[in-house]
Give the backbone structure.
Amino acid sequence: MAHPRTPDDLDELDRRVYDLAVQSIPLAEIAVRMGVPVPQADERIQRVCARLGVADRAALRAGAGTAVSQPDPDDGPVIGLDFAIPDVEPEPPKHSRRAVLAGGATALALFGGAAAVALSRRGGGSPASTGPTETPTPESSPTPPVPDFGGLPIQVEGGLNQRFETRTWAKGAPIDWEHGLFRMFPNTGDVQGLRFIETEPPRSGQSGFVLYKTGPGGRFVWAMHGDGRAYLVDVLNTERSWSWPIEDLRLVTAGTASRGTGVVFEELASRQGTGRHRVLSAAPGQDLELQSSFELPPTGFGMPPLWSPDGSQLVLWSGTHESDPQLHQIELATGRIVQSSHKIEPRDGVVAQPVRLDSLDGGFLATWSYSANGAAFERQMFGWSSAWVQNGLDGPRPINLTGRYSPDGQNLASEVPLREVNGGGAEAPREYWPAVVVESGGTGGADWSVLSASIGYGDRVTANPWLADSSGFVAMVRGPEPPDRPWDAFEYAVISTDGRTITRIPLPPVADLEWFRVNSMRSPAPCPYDVDLIAFGRLELYNRRTGEWLAAHITSQAGPDHLDPWAAGPGQTVFALPHGGHGGASPPILLTPKRVDGAADPDFRFVVARTGDGLNLRTGPATTTQPITVVPDGTIVELEEDLKRPAGQRGAFVGTEGTWLSVRSPEYGWGWVSAAYLDWA
């Protein structure tokens, strides 16, 4: 079959690639609009070139009537979805749909660290013509227009190497920055960083910039500073950045996708939301400008919004402790409120109430809880899909902060406590036995459960534990006791959708033992776009298909901040420094995981296993305590509290010699035993 020779002959996907490729925009921007990594965008462009019988993208543009500039000699290559410097040109004229002609080449400059920066600014093109051309008379440069920020107190700041800087570290190189937003690229292992520059020496000797964040597409990076201002940079615009007072303005979100780019602000009064929103947008290389505005009921918390897959719409919420919550669907280009959900009436006790928006491409699910203090937003549980509605998973249910739906909407996995005893206070001993229950098909109850598994692990990682293809989820399970730290006997596994297959995931190979690299804090986050990739602890990346590990080697002892490693989209993981405060809890009590049908309701009976010559029953939870007797393999024992010990340590104790349980058996009496040799009976 002959290849098509004109753009009109291309299929819908290739035509979309062609329409982007002939525009005077950098490859990185094309990748952002397509929602794919830069190498994949380049590969798709080359496929279109091959189908049209031309050499490269420059030939596509030439044939479409777009003038092609020669590359600057200092322009560098594109690596991943970069912090890129664009070629700024006017919008191209309407392209010809005739046969594409051969042409020249184009290039995209990128910046990183102390590398030379290629800041080329080229003129726009005009349609191809066979007639003579006339050279226009030079005109004086016009006065730059005053940016229209919609009346918001936004200030234009300096650009590259004035207000922010960038740097690239090769695979495995130590990262010596103490703050910034960083991206690691799975295809190379390189790490690129962007940080804001202090204009004055910080008083404490440490940077005042904290809470670095990014949004869909990874194009915008923002952070707060101790001077009371927040700062924003567009990585496709190196000439400027922006700042605003954090007591007057809140950046709700900033992102980009195939059909939309939006920087959404909410005006504040006394640091509380007013509901007045402004949507700003920016073409690559251009200043922010007002795109639309809308007004919602006031909000009391800075909870994350939900972007539509194409970036054209947002779902935001409104509500405070004194008012009932609502969800609102907004069209960014116009500011039109497409619809708002009904207000949720308070209920007795603490329950989760799903909220549905009917005119989405499917539905939306969020949960709200009610208590003596009134209404409070708990979390967004699901996204832009109707599967939860089709499955009937839309009734009120007990609130569960770990509940996560599979991407196909067919299964809900939640962590439940089998036993929880707190000694009192945040730092007091805590005995916590978890299980994961899975509900399928809207049955209203657990279909099956896994005892001794946890999906509420780690340090405030918000990523969904389900794999991208919904074939299973990642859970923390018990692992072998490391010789130098028996208390850290944890590893992670993929549990299949039916719970009958548990596949262990190897732990990252690291030489150091900072607190954020102990096994219980690894915080694996499966990639929502690639079933083979799992981010660990925000700094490591594991490829299940190849078995390869990549790691970002930070020198900071504080660890990375609480940022979803997949916040910027496919083709990169992101992490931020400095750490924003500890967000985990004491590790759970885990035995070898066991699948059971229905709900998790164990009787806390265990069987002695794998000892060979029996298990010592002792007077206390340590090998230094007096042995009572030896319990042989196969013996059934039951949990029994040691009332002489403090609350939170009476049934289980985690110490330097690992996890110990207080048990009793009819044949051998009461005592403490090592949990490493017990399984669920």
